[in-house]
Amino acid sequence: MPDWLATRLMHNVGMPAEQVAALELGQAIAVWEAFMTTPRAGGSG
To answer: Rounded to an integer, what is the distance from CA 40 to the centroid of its chain?
Structure first.
């Protein structure tokens, strides 16, 4: 998986590095997409 995606999964999503390393590319993309489409507190509004 690209370094940028692994970094975001660890820093933005909060996944441990061991879990990120165990993901296949498709799984990593699905986790990132879910994170990006889930509303979070602290947004504008």
So the answer is: 14
**CB 23 within 8 Å of CB 7:** no
d(CA 19, CA 4): 16
- CA-wise closest residue to 36 among 1, 7, 12, 3: 12
Q: Enumerate the domain spans of the chain.
A: 3-37
pLDDT tens digit sequence for 1-45? 999 999 999 999 999 999 999 999 999 999 999 999 998 776 655
For the entire predicted model, the pTM comes to: 0.82
